[in-house]
Amino acid sequence: MRNELRGLFLLLTLWSFDGNLWGQIQEINLKTHPGSENLRTQTTHTLNTLQLPFWDDFSTSILVPDSTKWLVGEHVNINKGRGLNPPSINVATFDGSDKFGIPYSELDISGAADSLVSQPIDLSNLQVSLRNTVYLSFFWQKKGNSEIPENVDSLRLQFKDQTDEWITVWSTVGGDTTFIRDFKQELIQVPPGPFQHAGFQFRFQSFGKLTGGYDNWHIDYVLLRSRRGPDDFYVRDRTLSTYPTSIFSDFSAIPFEHYCGRADTFRDSTSVVGFSLEPPVGFPSSIRFAAQVFEAVDGTLIDEMNNTNDDGLLFNGQTFTTIQANAVDTAALNNAKTDTSLFLLTKFFIRTKDSLLFDHIDPMSGDSLFFDNIDLTVNDTASSRVSLNRHYAYDDGSAENAAGVNAMNGQLAYLYPIPVRDTLTDVQIYFPNTESNQADQSLRLKIWSRLGNDELVTHTQTIFISASDSLDKFTNYPLSKALLVGDSLFIGIQQTGVVPLFIGLDKSFDSGERMYFNTSGSWEANTGVRGSLMLRPVFGSTDDIITSIDEPLPLEKLSLFPNPTEEPVVKVKGSLESLEKVAVYDLSGRVIPSRFDKSQKVIEFSAAYKGIYLVHLITSGQVHIQKLIVK
């Protein structure tokens, strides 16, 4: 997959082949182009010498590793969607770009990519009896939900000796499919001698392509401590491995009125997956759990689906266990409704009795001793957000990759079952930065009521992609006229230019069976891409509704001049007899104040900044869109 897309030239080469071979939905890695350095955040790292034990499972980190534990690592991405079946929520992902997808090099070269370096750890004062018992354990995976490393790529664990030289003590290479869906645990001794000094450090270093999010490795549950042996892999810790599934079946967002009208259609039980790091043999652990829904803004408890003080759910060692809660109470959601929206937080937690990391048993008293600075309960709680507002969404709002069709004039459609008839007013799309520069490209936004041999297009209009100035930022595209829809709704795009276009892809939830593509004259179901497109229909009320498509006026009939313009005043060229209304939008979909003087054929508008604007010329029920450049 790594070489499927290195740039526009390669994709154009793919397009030259037969569409039946190459025409399909393609998944690619994200990339932020030069000029986006303003997206980087400056992380301050303070040298902080630590004592044993060292532990981090990344469950409390957001985007970047904890700088109190890691001296270097801000470009390693902490995320919840790129690893598969991790031992605990969140993983540290290594690739050829920094945490915002900015590549280390624009040249197609390989080398040392992401690294994660621990703070110094003082091993100089260990008791003599403990010097042979210091071991570092961690879990690793290649690919997961991302891109597989090749056989020339590697992940290495290195120790710093007392001369400040990094020594490789473990490594693995890509090129095969072992451990792409499961994590593997390693246990490496820190032997007495040159490593056991006051400034010991360890680091994970990946080697691979430096041109973006390629050659992915994932790390989780890192533990360095004494009193271990060569077979001491296990920890008295039960964790949550996933975040709660949606309480609204497949959706992370639903229009509130749709939910209230068809609650039973959407209402679903939420679940998480737990994991036990205890030995695979012996007695299983018995735990308790709770599942609750809160109002996300003020924290008000709305419903408690499960909360028991009785043990009963069994966790077997080294085994994943699904924990299922009851469905949320519809009446409770209705009572919590404010206006036409409700933002919810689903919280799941387990009571495991493993609050602190076990140290050893005191030989004199027989008491169990624990490390009071390692709180294992932090991975016992996981939360996810859902909303009742105006739009539908399968995605969680965060893109791990991107997806699109790899054929000129190719079409991509996304199914949303709509249980009630309502007015579609907007479509929201996240166009991320990828290998090919998508900014300012035009395409067709299309709405279908059905696909196949009896395909019915109910709306189409030209839209333009604005440059992405932040991660996971949707652009709102108002429909030129609102559309009354019901039953099956397909929203999507058709490429009209030579630059391939891709939509953000969330890998944490798979709705791939609802994606369809047409690159050779017939529609086909997606079978190759897993995830959810960041492509959302928005509903509302309007008096301006259409129920079928109107063909736009020919481009030569109406035009703007001067274009480009240095002033926010332009004239309309062409016949204006049937011109009814003019509206101006920026590329994010915001309405720009404007005034149209039909007698003078002049449009005046408030251009707050230089750039591209969309002028909608509405005539006889048809919408003609002109791209206007203000210099």
Description:
A hairpin with a 5-residue loop joins strand 26 (442-450) and strand 27 (456-464). This protein is mostly beta strands and 631 residues long. The protein contains 5 helices and 42 strands. Strands 25, 26, 27, 28, 30, 31, 33 and 34 form an 8-stranded mixed beta sheet that branches. The two termini are 40 Å apart. The model is unreliable at 1-22, 32-42 and 542-556 (pLDDT under 50). The longest helix is centred in the N-terminal third of the chain and has 8 residues, at 8-15. The protein is globular, with a radius of gyration of 28 Å.
Task: Provide a brief overview of the structure.
This protein is mainly beta.
Question: Secondary-structure map with pairings?
Answer:
Elements: H1 8-15, H2 19-22, E1 25-29, E2 54-56, E3 70-72, E4 77-79, E5 91-96, E6 110-118, E7 135-142, E8 154-160, E9 166-173, E10 184-189, E11 202-209, E12 212-225, E13 238-240, E14 253-255, H3 256-261, H4 263-266, E15 269-276, E16 285-295, E17 301-307, E18 313-315, E19 320-327, H5 330-336, E20 342-351, E21 356-361, E22 368-375, E23 381-389, E24 401-405, E25 411-429, E26 442-450, E27 456-464, E28 475-495, E29 503-506, E30 515-518, E31 524-525, E32 532-533, E33 535-539, E34 545-546, E35 558-561, E36 569-574, E37 579-586, E38 591-592, E39 594-597, E40 602-605, E41 611-619, E42 622-630
Comma- or semicolon-separated keywords:
8-stranded mixed sheet, 6-stranded antiparallel sheet, 5% helix, disordered N terminus
